[in-house]
Amino acid sequence: MNTLSQLLKAMLPLLEKYTETEQHEASLTAFVAWLNRELAIPSPSRPIERHPVMHTDAMISAHLSRLNRFTKRYSKVALKNSPLAGIDDFVILVSLTKGERSKSEVIARNLIEFNTGIGIIRRLLRHDLVEELPDEEDKRGKRIRITPAGMRVLSQIYGSLEATSYLLTADLSEGEKNVLLGTLQHLDQHHVDAFEQNVQSLKEITEADPDDY
Fold it and tell me: Which of 54, 78, 180, 201 has the greatest CB tally within 10 Å of its CB?
C-alpha cells in the first residue's frame, strides 16, 4: 500500500466522524481546526508553561479571563471619544442591527446581567442611539431598535474597535488564528446550548451529558 492510500485510509474515519454533526461547516479551515482538537495536536512553536498548582482547565479559564480584561481595557480606549461607555454598549447596538428586540431578549442574548443591561439600554436611549416601541406580544413591555444615530456611531467606531482585535491576536500566524477561532467557536456553542437549557447550578453543569446539549 502506497503512502497516499495509507493517508486516505487513516483520513476517511475522521471525515466520517466530522460530518456526523450537522453544525460542522463544509470548509477545509473548519475541518483542520476540528482535526487539531480531535487529535490534540500541539503547536511546537508555542511551548506551554505549566503552573505548579493549577491544572490545565484552570489555566485555560484564567487566561480567557485575562484576555477578557485586556479586551475591556483596549475597547475603553477605543471608545473614549464616543457616547458608548464600554464594550457592552457596542455589543447591544450591534445585536440590534439585525432587527428590533425586546429589552430582556437583548440582555439575555448578550449574556449581560439584567440590571447592568437595563442601565446600558437607558444610557443608549438618552443618547438617542436606540428607541422604544410597543411590544405587541407583551403590552407591559417595550421593544427597542437602533436609530440612524446609533448606526452612525457604529460606523464611526468600528475601525477603532477592529484595531483592538489585532492587538488581541498579537503575533499569531494565520493558521494559529484559525485553530484558535475554531476552538473558541466550539466552546461557545457548547455553552450556548447549556445556557439555552437554563442550567441553574454548577452541579447541573458537571453532571450533565455533553451530548444532551
Answer: 78
**CA within 13 Å, CB half, 75:** 20
Q: Determine, yes or no, domain membership for 14.
A: no
Cα–Cα dist 149/78, whole Å: 19
Number of domains in the chain: 1
pLDDT tens-digit map of 108-121: 889 899 999 999 99
Residue whose entry in the numeric block shows the C-alpha cell 461547516: 25
Mark out the alpha helices in the chain (DSSP H runs).
Answer: 3-19, 28-39, 56-78, 87-96, 103-109, 114-126, 148-169, 174-196, 202-207
Give the tens place of pLDDT for each residue, 18-31: 887 656 667 787 78
Q: Is residue 89 part of a domain?
A: yes
* Contacts of 113 by beta carbon, 8 Å cutoff, 6+ apart: 107
159: phi then psi, degrees, rounded to nearest 5? -60, -40
Distance CA 151, CA 171 (A): 32
Domain with residue 114: its CATH number is: 1.10.10.10
In terms of pTM, does the model score above 0.70? Answer: no
pLDDT over 80 (residue 200): no
Domain that holds residue 93: 74-165
Residue that has been written with the C-alpha cell 429589552 in this structure: 103
Residue 184 covered by a domain:
no
Residue 35 within a domain: no
Note the pLDDT of residue 151.
97
